[in-house]
TrEMBL record:
Cytochrome c domain: residues covered: 38-125
Name of this protein: C-type cytochrome, methanol metabolism-related
Alphabetical list of Pfam families matching this protein: Cytochrome_CBB3
Basic and acidic residues composition bias: residue spans: 133-149
Organism: Methylocystis hirsuta
GO MF annotations in UniProt: electron transfer activity; heme binding; metal ion binding
Region (Disordered): 1-22, 130-155
Keywords: Heme, Iron, Metal-binding
Amino acid sequence: MCVGSSAMAEAPGDPKAVKSTDGKYFDAKGDPTYNVGPDGKVDWYTFSGYRRYHAECHVCHGPNGGGSTYAPALKDSVKRFDYAEFAGIVIGGRQNGNSVMPAFADNKNASCYIDDLYVYLRALSTGAIEPGRPGKKEDRPEAFAKAETECMSQK
């Protein structure tokens, strides 16, 4: 995802989880966010984001959202724009000078997990989690399994 700051971008705001529904956490703006327990246990969506990021995004954007010579550090980019802009770029793609982020609308390993990717990068961006595979995670919520099955089976 080749992103830069934009005059129209809205900062994501405080990532503190204020609401939880079916194992998914939300901030005060209603955007998806992470939840990390005092023992370092991450919510399922953050763990899923780690998995999806390293399956689809790290080749260009580097391990753990750290960037590369080819694409920017997404853990820094998510500090500058909110969930809606992030999702729009992943789904629709973006060109920024000579850099091109392809659209991932047809890639279900990305499009079905937009929330997960966002919360994982958000957790990295704030230092709530360390780089690398989270050591502890919450159990997979039934709502996640249902949404995953529905999204992955769509044509």
